[in-house]
Amino acid sequence: MTSTPVRPAAAPATTNLLAPPRGRGGALAGVGPVLRLALRRDRILIPAWTLGIAGMATMSAQATVGLYPDLPARVEAAQVVNGSAALIALYGRIQDPTSLGELSMFKLTAFGAAIIGVLFAFLAVRHTRGEEEAGRLELVGATVVARSAPLAAAMGVVAITATAVGSLTGVGLWVAGLPLAGSMAFGAAWAATGLVFGAIGAVAAQLTVSARAATGLSLAVLAVAYVARAIGDLAEQAPGPASWLSPIGWTQQVRAFSGTRWQILVLPLVATAALVPLAFWLRSRRDLGAGLLPDRPGPAVGRLAGPWGLAVRLQRPALLGWTAGVVVMGLALGSVADSVEGFLDTAAMRDIVAALGGEQALVDMFLAAELGIIGAVLAGAGIAAVRWLPHEEGSGRAEVLLATATSRRSWALAHAGVAMLGVAALILVAGLAIGTGHALVVGEPGQVLRLAAAAATRIPAALVMVGIAVAVWGWWPRASWLAWLLFVVFLALGEFGALWGVPDPVMDLSPFRHSPLVPGPDPAFGALPVLLLIALGLVALGVGRFSRRDLGTA
Amino acid sequence: MTMSTAAPGSPPSDLGDAVIDVRGLVKHFGSLRVLDDLDLTVASGEVHGLLGPNGAGKTTTLRILLGLLRADAGTLRLLGGDPWHDAVALHHRLAYVPGDVTLWPNLTGGEVIDLLGRMRGGLDRARRDELIERFDLDPTKRGRTYSKGNRQKVALIAALASDVELLLLDEPTAGLDPLMDATFRTYIEQARGSGRTVLLSSHVLSEVEALCDRVSIIRSGVVVESGSLADLRHLTRTAVTAEVRSMPAGLEHLPGVHDLVVDGNRVRASVEREGLTSFIAALGGGVLESLTSQPPTLEELFLRHYREELVPAAADAGPEPRRGLRGRRSA
Ligand SMILES: Nc1ncnc2c1ncn2[C@@H]1O[C@H](COP(=O)(O)OP(=O)(O)OP(=O)(O)O)[C@@H](O)[C@H]1O
Ligand SMILES: [Mg+2]
């Protein structure tokens, strides 16, 4: 793009010889090869995700069809769901109690859209900022490839993956026994969600300088979208306005299985059509490798004293981001917990609630469920924090540190330790925030500490996930995906294991299953010390192995 | 000739004060045998150059010496300790500059220098500031905004600012401009002057010639040549070009004559030191019209070692056949 004709006023024929080859559309020259390269790089990842997501939906549909063969059973189940604020906040409402599809996909519509959001934002960041950060785009960018081509190629990957996920899910649901049109609408809604979050990831990738920060920013948007739809679903006149501000709300409002509203799909498509050009525009305004803000000079003299100082420094941005997110989400969820009363409008419902232990018990159930979700999400934050270990090792930075008088053990324990303490602190903050939100609404200051204490019981299970990530890194430094895979499997077992008929011993493998249900009537704390020991044992296992193996690079 | 790539069982006499002593080092990556029975001795107070083609195993050797990789076989002594088991204790006494310096994107150069210095057990602040000035580094810039050469400088300053006995430098001047290169050389001279030991790998022959007391040439995981530069010069050949009235017969059979090209009444050859007299005498028999000779360069020797097909010629040059030179690359 920078070759200049020898004579500026040269005849067009001369200029053409010297100008870079334009091909079809100069601005997008080279998209094809870059796209093929990207698809090749993810030739396992993309099919695995697609099959995993579509398989999850299909299995859930199949199991529901078998469990609720007749109408009365379905209506009853739907009423239980719609009577529980906790379930509505977590998953959404069942729009039509008679619809088999609605009941089948009740857990997956919004929650599945969130999973898709995570994956697609990650995918977009991975092929834009991720490549750029690794310096690979520099190699590619020096060939006959337009500046925006990698971004266009990343959007191509997103579009292709979204189409695959959408169509395979649609077919899967139909094969599982749900109506054809609804199944297709559901798949299309998920695909549209994927497009929106892919576009959000692409925009985030232009704003930050690291892929890690771009993913974090996208996840923050996702979290806000999820909470917004929860608030919208809990509104008196659902869906409330908040639902219409949330891409996940849009996914739900397509109502694939109760009077499909195809026209709602226009919303995510319009949003994508607005965000993608925004990403291109931002890209055209910055240099390769740069963010939107210029880098400011920093201190000439350092105060970092050792591996712990460095680990805190490196993990600090993510910790601060999570803290902000957790406080906002906690306050929001804590303050809606009380609206559970609004759902107890029938006499029959009141009787059931009284039998369960009264309204307080329902509110507690809701709060316990919220804490469970937050604990799981923050376990994911912990796994992400442990990624610093392979990241530092692979980039060669660990090599420099370990050539100083720092033992491998203290270096690895510093990162693992900061990850664990960070997760524990975040879970406590989440409990405090939920407690504060709840206390403000019900006017009981005691709720703050009560919920912080309840949140604390979720720490050991989250630490086990961190321990798993450390152990995986120690033994198989290249396989950090394994920790994520286990995380997703454990979450899926918790959500759908019972529905899928997974045997108990398998379900018990998930650490989250052993967290006590607090606040609640009959919590079992016995597993907590065991979980803690397992977490520490896993860390010891991983760090011990790392101390005895070759340091890896590349 | 006093080459120190001795056969096993006859260690060099200076073993007593060897800072690095490696015998029979073997390292595999999967099924790939990267270091194949490598011997290396670095005496105390010397600047030792490690040369060899890309992928020869220089970096791997340094990483093993740092305890970052584990040797599969062989005996290793570094500063009197075991590089793997005593890593932390030994690292108090050495500093390392990796070949490929990556910095933390959001830490400034100054922060990195101080962090590494502290983790090594403290650094001399006055010396640090002097180095930053001499290397003309802006310590307030963030890691991601440094150029390649400046990243290299950060790692170099961190290493040179520590008061250590041993410097392990992997291609330390890659990316430095000539001015900074000169600065680097003065500091290495200074290190030598204060009795420190330096082991550096390099592809820059002039740098090796200027700095190193002794060099070892590694190829395919074996040290094929090791000795002082004076020793190595003995192995170099003089390029001779001559015009004669009539071409003498049998030039190709003269000892120490290589790459002989006869073109009409012109002749070119590279000739070992020992063969010069007889070669010139033979040419004189044909009545010399003109004669030019190029002095032996180390570069030529190195290049000869880098190219595999010239191996046997080098083996002939020594008094005893050296290990590693006799087609020991088993398939
Ligand atoms: N972690 C690894 N896994 C597999 N092979 C490796 C690994 N590290 C190095 N190698 C291989 O070992 C050989 C020696 O590599 P090394 O980096 O030591 O070479 P080098 O002499 O430093 O080369 P250069 O001059 O290019 O820096 C090469 O063939 C390289 O591909
Ligand atoms: Mg190297």
What does it look like?
The complex is a heterodimer of chains A (554) and B (331). Chain A contains 25 helices and no strands. Chain A has helices spanning 12-18, 31-41, 45-67, 71-82, 85-91, 100-104, 109-133, 136-141, 149-175, 180-207, 211-234, 241-244, 247-253, 266-284, 307-336, 347-356, 358-386, 388-395, 397-402, 408-442, 446-456, 459-475, 480-500, 504-507, 527-548. In chain A, α10 packs antiparallel against α13 and α20 runs antiparallel to α22 (459-475). Mean pLDDT of chain A is 86; it is low at 1-25. Chain A is globular and about 70 Å long. Chain A is an all-alpha fold and 554 residues long. Chain B is α/β, with parallel strands linked by helices. Chain B is built from eleven helices and 13 strands. Chain B has a six-stranded mixed β-sheet with strand order 5-6-7-3-8-9, with helices on both faces. Chain B has a four-stranded antiparallel β-sheet with strand order 11-12-10-13, covered by helices on one side. Chain B has a three-stranded antiparallel β-sheet with strand order 2-1-4, with helices on one face. In chain B, β1 and β2 (32-43) form a beta hairpin. In chain B, α3 packs parallel to α5. The two termini of chain B are 32 Å apart. The chains are: A mainly alpha (554), B alpha/beta (331). Chains A and B meet through α15 and α19 of A and α2, β5 and α3 of B.
